[in-house]
Design a protein that fits this description.
The complex is a heterodimer of chains A (573) and B (564). Chain A has 573 residues and is α/β, with parallel strands linked by helices. In chain A, 63% of the residues lie in helices and 10% in strands. In chain A, the strands form three sheets. In chain A, strands 6-9-10-3-11-12 form a six-stranded mixed sheet, with helices on both faces. In chain A, strands 2-1-4-5 form a four-stranded antiparallel sheet, covered by helices on one side. In chain A, α1 runs parallel beside α5. Chain A is elongated, with a radius of gyration of 35 Å. About 1% of the residues of chain A have low confidence. Chain B is of the alpha/beta class. In chain B, the strands form two sheets. Chain B has a six-stranded mixed sheet, sandwiched between helices. In chain B, strands 2-1-4-5 form a four-stranded antiparallel sheet, covered by helices on one side. In chain B, α3 runs antiparallel to α10, α6 packs antiparallel against α7 and α14 packs across α16. Chain B starts with a helix and ends with a strand. The chains are: A alpha/beta (573), B alpha/beta (564). At the A-B interface, α1, α2, α3, α4 and α6 of A face α3, α4, α5, α7 and α8 of B. Chain B: It is a multi-pass membrane protein. Chain B: Keywords: ATP-binding, Membrane, Nucleotide-binding, Transmembrane, Transmembrane helix. Chain B: It comes from Acetobacter cerevisiae. Chain B: One of its GO terms (molecular function) is ATP binding.
Chain lengths: 573, 564
């Protein structure tokens, strides 16, 4: 977490500006609704004032005043309509903003690519894209309009009050003006607390996802109770942090309650005194006016404070936005991947792959992962990368895939530096098979078609056959339509790997990168997977990282790595 | 697939009400706090009503030349209102979060009871959604439904009695309007919003799974240039979610407007009465009092419309949370179970097993004898059921027929916890947690000393690697051990297994991911460090350095002895 306050404030400000345009209808409807409320209060006060004066003057000859009552009903209908419109507009503002932001976050994650996973837990990334953005609903739907309305609406209400009862307007104005001080005082505290709380929330979620993924390990190690207890502690921490925010956040709304009660009591007492003074002079228009206007002001007080209360309620929404800003700002900027001048495509058939004096370091504390590594694989030939685990094989794969860029030296395809190749063209050139393919939620067929969604049935079946997926299809309940769950339930490692091979067949790229594709397979399965791979490798440029003994099935050059250095070469590598 | 089937087939249908009652019963520990929260809310509400009425009366009564409401009373009511409202909100929220923490823990615990063999078709993303979102949603159950509902139940009689004293007709009419606003409109919106709420929950879960796939599959996506496709896929999920939210918001807007109109109609009636229309004669002073009371009462009922709207969402959330607990298989929780016996002789007799009724048999009459302290290997190509054997021994799966005994005791009669404490298991599915190396190791034996940890790392041939790490044992492993290479991660997992003091070790392909030399070294150390324990080595081949008492070969659903 960078915690860069200026950046967070900048982000919030930009988002507010973007949100304010969408929130304009909400603000207009809100102001209209306040005005209608004032009108209604006047109608009610007129009726009650009239009745009270009638009471004083002896009651008997009361005339029925109907117009304010009918006006009240008319205004009520209008106000209901406007409230519905305002609610809908505010929901729309929230939804539009979330759609935009989620798109931006996902684009950032895709831009960051696999390297992002080394820094951040996938659960945390998913939380940002789903929950953080979802939590921003209130920011755009409530906070942004409320941040305009809380000044505009009370001022609008204060105008007629000042006209009718100046001293009441003064009291109301002073009480109203005191509110922002309380807000600022408590709001800052709430915002600080909120950032910590969101950290706890994210931690709890990441922890839970991780524990759920490994729940078999936990249960079979007999540690379910301990872990449950620890989760309980995390939940308890979350509660404490949340309460810290709420203790302050509720103070800010209590300060509004307080201001409102003071205004209510003061005006009731002041107008009461004034009316009593006037009463001594008998029934007069002045008494009637004081009564009516006094009642009017009392009725308007809740309307006056409603927008302020709306702001206090929405304050948490603003704090959420700041929490989200911290997380979102940590993501890489969603730029289209650089396609520098002279970006080119490389002839798609027959690609020569070479590393020239490449160095790369993941973590300076642990020394270089690759130390001046060079090799060349001519078009259509196979290079075997050998070496113990941790010797740098996977790092080379990530470089070739363009997931990471070398610190120095260059990776070249047909002589063109990797970073000068159009990304689309690059991904079209490469097929990659790792240790454990990721199988997406969906059917087996969807998972194979992932490589080329527009492939026709014949191509699909050819890939299925070539990768020997058809051999285990009969053992699946729905054949190609079998749904596969998290990590491919029911599929063995060999079967999952065959799906990856089918993908590679379907994609039909000139370069084939194999990163320990048989690491989790037994020799019999390994042999048959290698046979499939041998067929796949025909006429393609292949880089195969492995320490399998069965690698002699592949003819080609060989480079032995140790601690990121080339220690031996066979063939003209 | 005994475990994953639970979500599709045998889940008993739960109604929302049952689910909500179940949730409420889970909160019994926090009941006193929750009840006090409601009480505080009720008192605060009463003071609010009194304050509004008193202010109106204070002004109105001045026309009679007497002070009905004293300044002191106003001050006390006002002050009390502010303080109680604050206390109520704080207390109620605190009680609620305590209850939610209990719920989270209960949920994880229930999951642990049944998910031993892996999550199967229940995807982790969906689980996360259930725990975090659904349980978070349930805070509304108390704060936004129960508390306002209790308040409305108190307000209704106050309102009816106060108005009824002036005019029975008026009291009844306004009472009916209040009931409409506080109960009928919320009920109707809850009913109509139910299906939508459920769909929203599903949409959110689908979005989450989509996003998790996108994040987890970043390599595949990059390698296949599928950014655009996967993004549009996730955005389609997003659009479905947002469209559903918009529909719900529109419905909420209408409901809000209807509830508002009920309140306005009530004020309209009071005004008519005050003006003396329809012979609803009430005294002008009383009219002022009841008008202010009516305004305040209907304002407090407004919260229930929103509650009704969320009731559907909440019911669905409660049901999904409870379903997980109810659907846990009970095979592991028989009443008459005992602790595992001291003797560690394992015997399998005529075991028949398949993962699901529509799958082929994995074992068909498997008979196997593993004496205490024996070192045996079980060999066979992948897919022959080697891992199923481990699942059966650990009671992560149940055989269709045949018997499995430990020390002469049927394992179905042994408590799962106790059984698993006797067997340590290492497999390809063994998970490395996003935590420090130390925390990962301590999962094997929480009371292990520093020396124990290093010895286990030595035995697993990974101590040298850990020593070179700047933070040593406190190095953060990252998700699934991503900060280490595959082989190093496996060895950390092995160290964890060796650290346990279980007398039986089930090592399912322990050398996977190790290069040939390391594998041999590792198996040699295994010969010495497992002295005195039963070792069941499940592998597809032997390297020749293992010291073994017996070798079994699995094929055709049975085990045959091979030369040792």
């Amino acid at each position: 977490m960078s915690g860069d306050k200026a950046a967070i404030r900048g982000w919030t400000r930009t988002q507010s500006r973007l949100g304010r345009q969408a929130a304009r209808p909400v603000v207009v409807f809100g102001l209209l609704s306040s005005l209608l409320g004032v009108g209604q209060a006047w109608c009610v006060a007129t009726v009650l004032g009239h009745a009270l004066v009638g009471l004083v003057s002896g009651g008997g000859a009361q005339t029925l005043v109907l117009w304010p009552i009918l006006a009240f009903a008319g205004l009520a209908l209008l106000r209901a309509l406007i409230m519905a419109l305002s609610d809908t507009a505010s929901a729309k503002a929230g939804i539009d903003a979330r759609r935009r932001l989620r798109g931006e976050v996902l684009a950032s994650i895709l831009t960051g690519g696999p390297a992002l996973l080394r820094k951040t837990h996938s659960g945390e990334l998913a939380t940002i894209a789903v929950d953080r953005v979802e939590a921003l609903d209130g920011f755009f739907g409530r906070w942004v309009p409320a941040s305009v309305l809380w000044i505009a609406a009370p001022l609008l209400i204060l105008l007629p009050v000042a006209f009718i009862q100046p001293h009441a307007a003064l009291v109301l104005g002073l009480c109203g003006a005191a509110v922002p001080f309380g807000q600022a005082l408590f709001g800052i505290g709430a915002a600080v607390a909120s950032r910590n709380q969101f950290l706890a929330m994210t931690r709890l979620q990441a922890r839970f996802l991780d524990r759920v993924k490994g729940i078999a390990t936990i249960v079979l190690a007999g540690r379910a109770d301990d872990e449950t207890e620890r989760l309980g502690q995390a939940a308890e921490e979350l509660r404490q942090r949340t309460m810290k925010i709420l203790r302050v956040a509720f103070l800010s709304s209590a300060s509004i309650d307080c201001a409102m009660v003071i205004a209510l009591v003061l005006i009731a007492i002041m107008d009461g005194k004034q009316a009593m003074a006037l009463l001594s002079g008998g029934v007069s228009p002045a008494l009637a006016y004081t009564l009516t206007s006094g009642l009017f002001v009392l009725l308007v007080i809740p309307e006056f404070f409603a927008p302020l209360r709306g702001l206090a309620l929405a304050y948490q929404d603003r704090a959420h936005a700041q929490g989200a800003a911290t997380a979102i700002l940590d993501l890489p900027e969603a730029l289209p991947r650089p396609s520098p001048d002279g970006a080119r495509t490389v002839n798609a058939s027959g690609v020569m792959v070479s590393l020239e004096d490449v160095c790369f370091t993941w973590d300076p504390a642990r020394g270089p992962a690759l130390d001046h590594v060079s090799f060349t694989v001519p078009a259509g030939e196979t290079l075997i990368l050998a070496g113990p685990s941790g010797s740098g094989k996977s790092t080379i794969m990530e470089l070739l895939l363009g997931f990471i860029q070398p610190d120095s030296g260059s990776v070249r395809f047909n002589g063109a530096p990797l970073d000068s190749i159009v990304p689309d063209s690059l991904s079209r050139m490469i097929s990659w098979i790792g240790q454990k393919p990721v199988l997406f939620a969906g059917t087996l067929k969807d998972n194979i078609l992932f490589a080329r969604p527009d492939a026709d049935e014949a191509d699909l079946m050819a890939a299925v056959k070539a990768a020997a997926v058809d051999q285990f299809l009969p053992s699946l309940p729905d054949g190609l339509e079998t749904r596969i769950g998290e990590g491919g339930f029911g599929l063995s490692g060999g079967q999952a790997q065959r799906i990856a091979i089918a993908r590679a067949y379907l994609k039909n790229a000139p370069i084939l990168l194999l990163d320990e594709p048989t690491a989790h397979l037994d020799p019999a399965t390994e042999k048959s997977v290698f046979e499939s791979l041998q067929r796949l490798a025909l006429r393609r440029t292949v880089v195969l990282a492995t320490h399998s003994a069965a690698v002699h099935m592949f003819n080609g050059r060989r480079v032995d790595l140790q601690m990121g250095r080339v220690v031996a070469r066979q063939g003209a590598a | 697939m005994k475990i994953s089937d639970q979500t599709d087939g045998s889940t008993p249908a739960l109604t929302d009400r049952q689910a909500i009652l179940r949730i409420l019963s889970l909160w019994h520990r926090q009941a006193p706090r929750l009840i006090i929260g409601v009480m505080l809310a009720l008192v605060a509400l009463c003071l609010g009503l009194v304050l509004m009425q008193a202010s109106g009366l204070r002004l109105a009564s001045s026309v009679l030349g007497e002070v009905v409401i004293t300044t002191a009373l106003l001050r006390w009511v006002g002050g009390g209102r502010v303080i109680l409202r604050y206390a109520e909100r704080l207390f109620a929220h605190d009680a609620m979060f305590r209850a939610l923490a209990d719920l989270r823990v209960w949920f994880f615990h229930s999951l642990a009871q049944g998910a031993a063999a892996g999550l199967g078709f229940r995807r982790a993303g969906d689980m996360l959604s259930r725990l975090v979102s659904d349980i978070g949603t349930l805070d509304g159950l108390y704060l936004r439904i129960l508390v306002p509902f209790a308040c409305a139940c108190l307000t209704l009689p106050i309102l009816v009695i106060q108005l009824g004293r002036q005019s029975v007709v008026l009291g009844i009419l306004v009472g009916v309007l209040f009931a409409c606003s506080a109960f009928l409109v919320p009920y109707l919106i809850a009913k109509s919003g139910r299906a939508e709420g459920e769909r929203l929950g599903k949409n959110l879960a689908a979005l989450r799974i989509g996003v998790l796939d996108l994040v987890g599959g970043l390599r595949e996506i990059r390698a296949f240039g599928a950014e655009g496709r996967i993004l549009s896929h996730v955005q389609a999920d997003d659009a479905a979610l947002l469209a559903g939210q918009m529909r719900l918001a529109r419905r909420a807007a209408y409901a809000n407007a209807s509830a508002f109109l009920c309140g306005q109609a009530a004020i309209f009636l009071v005004l008519l009465a005050a003006a003396g229309a329809f012979s609803l004669h009430i005294s002008a002073l009383a009219a002022v009092g009841i008008l202010f009371l009516t305004v305040a009462a209907f304002e407090s009922a407004g919260a229930l419309t929103r509650a009704g709207l969320q009731a559907g969402v909440m019911g669905a959330a409660a049901r999904r949370v409870v379903e997980v607990a109810v659907s846990t298989p009970n095979a592991t929780q028989l009443a008459t179970q005992t602790d595992a016996p001291e003797d560690t002789h394992i015997h399998l007799e005529g075991v028949k097993f398949r993962w699901a009724p529509d799958r082929p048999l994995v074992f068909d009459g498997l008979t196997l004898d593993i004496p205490a302290g024996a070192r045996i290997a079980i060999l066979g190509p992948s897919g022959v059921g080697k891992s199923s054997l481990a699942a059966l021994l650990l009671k992560a799966a149940v055989p269709e027929a045949g018997s499995i005994t430990l020390g002469g005791e049927e394992i179905s009669h042994i408590k799962a916890d106790s059984l698993r404490r006797r067997m340590a298991w290492l497999s390809q599915a063994t998970h490395l947690f996003d935590d420090s190396i130390r925390a990962n190791l301590l999962l094997g034996r929480p009371d292990a000393t520093e020396d124990d940890l290093w010895k286990a790392l030595e035995d697993a041939a990974v101590a040298d690697v850990v020593k070179t790490l700047p933070d040593g044992l406190d190095t953060w492993l990252g998700e699934g051990g991503i900060k280490l290479s595959g082989g190093q991660g496996r060895r950390i997992a092995l160290a964890r297994t060796l650290l346990t003091q279980a007398p039986i070790l089930i090592l399912d392909e322990p050398a996977t991911g190790l290069d040939a030399q390391t594998e041999q070294d590792f198996l040699r150390t295994l010969n010495t460090v497992t002295e005195g324990r039963t070792v069941i080595l499940i592998a597809h081949r032997l390297t020749g350095v293992e010291t073994l008492d017996r070798i079994w070969r699995l094929s055709g659903g049975v085990a045959t002895a091979a030369a040792a």
